[in-house]
Design goal:
Number of strands: 0
Oligomer: single chain
Distance between the termini: 72 Å
Strand content: under 5%
Helix content: over 70%
Radius of gyration: 27 Å
Order of helices and strands: HHHHHHHHHHH
């Protein structure tokens, strides 16, 4: 029997590492230590977010402004998502445990092998999660190394190099004078750790979101398979009815079909409720993702045209690729759950309900009505996750980038 801990376990553990979820069986001292750990994360991210915001207002270099906005939007939106999920951690954690209820109901309709079916289905999601987090780690490494190779010390004095925001992974205003090498290294390491932390927060939350959608998609696959299995039983009943072979066997088949369909209806209701819960919990995070993506990637594209070296170009391309990949996966899984819901309607149309009992027809009609209009995952109804939205996102990126480029050309000419 598949345990509830098997669902979203990897993504759940990642979010525990970054302070979102806490173990329920922890002691008082462990809870205090975990609260202190959360506070450290909050202080570091908030402090650097504020320092980057100050840098945006005081800088006069267009390249520095574009570079600062890129990372600041990621920090600001990532910090918001972290605070939001931490404040409502129980509701988000319940997504993991609610899948066990879905699987139990799915087993009632499908049979004992439902656990094996689901376990095989979830293997792909683990691979996606590993590679997704790994891509974030690679992009972080490029961003960290970029200032060391792009803005080297050269002929500058130590104090000039140490106090130049371009010398660090994050373009932050420096509130004090750095005149020692160990101070420079300490600030550089803090920037690197904070950058890696915000990337893990972003991708960890994404992995949990994607995993929840993919897992409920597996339950829809289980439901469709149950309906297909029941279709064969109903076809046997139809053949018996056409040959006028009324017997205890056909009556027993009809009762079993009705019982299975009833369990399928219960399973379908739980699936739809789960999708609604996902949409409600992640609605504000999806909207924040979109605003971050459209802002940061636009300025990153602009920074790409005025980058100072090949290394900086590679780091900016890595950031753009990761951000666009993130937006694509958001919309991919949004389209994924739409198509999965529609597939239930297709499976139901293949059931020979016209030769069945009135009670069976009522159950099939009920499920068809629930499947005709799929539930959409949206950001407060302002941005729905689908392929169509991703195409619109790419078009908007190009439009805003061209506006920035024209403004820059006019400034240069004047």
């Amino acid at each position: 029997m598949m345990q509830s801990s098997d669902y979203l376990s990897f993504a759940y553990n990642v979010l525990r590492w970054i302070g979102v979820f806490q173990s329920n069986d922890s002691t008082k001292w462990t809870r205090w230590a975990f609260t202190f750990y959360r506070s450290i994360i909050f202080i570091i991210l908030t402090l650097l977010t504020i320092l980057m915001m100050v840098q945006m207002f005081i800088t006069t270099d267009l390249t520095m402004l574009a570079r600062t906005i890129d990372i600041w939007t990621m920090f600001f939106s990532g910090l918001y998502k972290w605070l939001y999920m931490t404040a409502f951690n129980w509701e988000f954690a319940h997504l993991k445990f609610a899948l066990a209820q879905l699987q139990t109901q799915g087993s009632a309709a499908y049979g004992r092998s439902a656990d094996v079916f689901t376990a095989d289905y979830l293997k792909q999601m683990k691979k996606i999660s590993y590679w997704y987090l790994f891509s974030g780690f690679v992009a972080t490494c490029f961003i960290v190394v970029s200032p060391l190779l792009t803005y080297s010390k050269g002929d500058r004095y130590d104090i000039q190099y140490y106090n130049d925001p371009k010398s660090y992974p994050l373009s932050c205003w420096i509130p004090f004078t750095i005149n020692e090498n160990w101070m420079f290294l300490a600030v550089f390491v803090c920037h690197s750790i904070a950058l890696l932390l915000i990337v893990i927060i972003y991708l960890g939350i994404d992995t949990y979101f994607f995993g929840a959608i993919y897992a409920v998609g597996g339950q829809i696959e289980l439901l469709n398979t149950s309906l297909n299995n029941n279709e064969n039983t109903l076809a046997q009943f139809e053949n018996c009815s056409c040959s006028n072979q009324t017997s205890f066997y056909t009556e027993k088949q009809q009762i079993r079909c009705y019982s299975t369909l009833r369990e399928c209806v219960k399973h379908h209701i739980l699936i739809l409720d789960y999708i609604k819960r996902i949409g409600k919990l992640f609605s504000t995070l999806i909207l924040m993702d979109y605003l971050h993506g459209i802002t940061s990637v636009t300025f990153a594209l602009f920074q790409l045209t005025i980058s100072a070296s090949i290394i900086e170009t590679i780091s900016v391309i890595s950031f753009i690729c990761l951000s666009v990949w993130h937006q694509y996966l958001n919309n991919f899984f949004g389209e994924f759950i739409i198509q999965k819901q529609l597939s239930v309607c297709t499976a139901l149309h293949n059931v020979p309900w016209w030769q069945c009992d009135k009670k069976v027809r009522q159950l099939v009609t009920l499920m068809i009505l629930r499947s005709i209009k799929p539930i959409l995952i949206t950001g407060y109804y302002m941005y729905k996750l689908s392929y169509e939205s991703f195409i619109s996102f790419v078009k908007a990126l190009y439009t805003y980038y061209m506006v920035l480029r024209r403004v820059n050309i006019k400034d240069i000419n004047t």
